[in-house]
Specification:
By secondary structure, the protein is of the alpha+beta class. The chain contains three helices and eight strands; from the N terminus they run ααβββββαβββ. It has an eight-stranded antiparallel β-barrel. The N and C termini lie far apart (about 35 Å).
Length: about 150
């Protein structure tokens, strides 16, 4: 259960979220669209996530992308897609967010059970936070509570 809790902030961050900076408020650098990626392992397996995140000046976010679950039995990644929307804010190098809606889908029936399990976990953990590690006008990186790094580019 601990590892799935680690999965949720990473998914939520990539499912629609970004942050602000270290010494002074870089909020205006964060506003706009980002392409983000990360990889992590949990009780459900190994995952790779890539997506597009849009942070709006009004504190809302929207994200779409792909989640790939690695299957060791067939030595391949199995694709799922996600979409989410919610709200975000920044204070003291910490980004806090609340996901108001999300979808997680796959075109492969063999993944329906995994999708349902991940979806249920996401619904139980809609609030999330991450620490900003680095931000420039073209790059962004933050760290989830489990130390997973999320990298983003314009």
């Amino acid at each position: 259960m601990t590892k799935i809790k680690r999965l949720i902030p990473v998914l939520l961050l990539l499912v629609g979220f970004t942050a602000q900076a270290v010494v002074f408020n870089h909020r205006q650098l964060l506003i706009g669209s980002w392409q983000c990626k990360t990889a992590f392992a949990s009780e459900q397996g190994k995952f790779r996530v890539a997506g597009n995140v849009t942070l709006n000046d009004n504190g809302s976010f929207f994200s779409t992308g792909d989640l790939f679950a690695y299957n060791a039995l067939i030595n391949t990644e199995l694709p799922m897609s996600y979409q989410s929307a919610g709200s975000w804010n920044y204070q003291n190098q910490i980004v806090n967010g609340n996901m108001h809606s999300h979808t997680l889908e796959t075109g492969f029936p063999m993944l329906n059970r995994l999708v349902a399990m991940l979806d249920q976990q996401i619904q139980q953990h809609t609030k999330f936070s991450a620490r900003l590690v680095r931000v420039t006008d073209l790059e962004l990186e933050f760290e989830a509570d489990d130390h997973t790094r999320i990298q983003c580019k314009r």
